[in-house]
Structure formats: C-alpha cells, structure tokens
Fold this sequence. Notes:
The chain is of the alpha+beta class. The chain has 4 helices and 6 strands.
Amino acid sequence: MKEASARIKINKLLEDAGWRFFADANGPANIQLEPSVALTRQALDAHGQNLEKTAEGFIDFLRLNVRSFPFIVLEAKAEDQAPLVGKEQARRYAKSQNRRFVIQSNGTPHYFWNLERGTPYLITKFPTPESVVAYGRRSGNRLNTNRDGSKR
C-alpha cells in the first residue's frame, strides 16, 4: 500500500506539471503506465532465468514527447524507500527505451537524472513537458533523438 500512496502523489504531481494520463483539449495522453510499457524483448532475454531476481521488469511511468515517443522514464518507489534505491533499475529501463532522462520518486522527494550528465539531483517539483524538451536542446543529445525528444 505504501507504493500505492506514493503513486497517488506522483500522479497528482505529474498532472500539476502538465502531463496527461488521458487525451484532452490540450492534446493526447503523454504518460503510459506500467501495464502498457515493458522492457524490450532483448532486455528481458538478457536476464535469462534470473528475471524473478530483477526488480519488477516493468517501467512504472513512461512520459512521452509531443510525437508520442518515449521520452522520460519515471521510477516510483514506496514511500518508506529512498527514491534512489531503484537507481540502477531506472538506468536499465531508460537504456532499454534508448532514453537519457529519468525521474525517481517515492512521492517526495524526487530526483531528476540525465544519464549523460552524471548523478541524479534533487528537484522540488516535476518538470513540465516543455522544460524537459528545452533542457534536451541546451545539453545536447547523443542518443539519436531529435530536438523534441523523438527518436531519429
């Protein structure tokens, strides 16, 4: 139940930052939840018989760019766990989707991580879709993505 309460907080924070779970007048949904987004087959095969020893095997939240391509992996942890407990799990998920941005949260606090720029850092609120696209332009992008975060 502690992860469920964290997810309720995270859902609200995502909506407050302008992310959408459902299409509306502002545009299509730009978040996919874990039942819709699994690791790639290749990544799962790499785990072999040890899949049950990996943490879940599913991305908690996948945030999409304006073209509905994967853009940011958000890894949720239970409220009683530090968000960075899942750091390597989040890195694997992001790499499986060829993404470089990760957010890790347990409802509070939250960490933003650009895999190309070092370690996660504390944030007080989730970035808006526009701010992350702008950040990608400023910092350069070496993961074969366009300026809006879509894959080339």
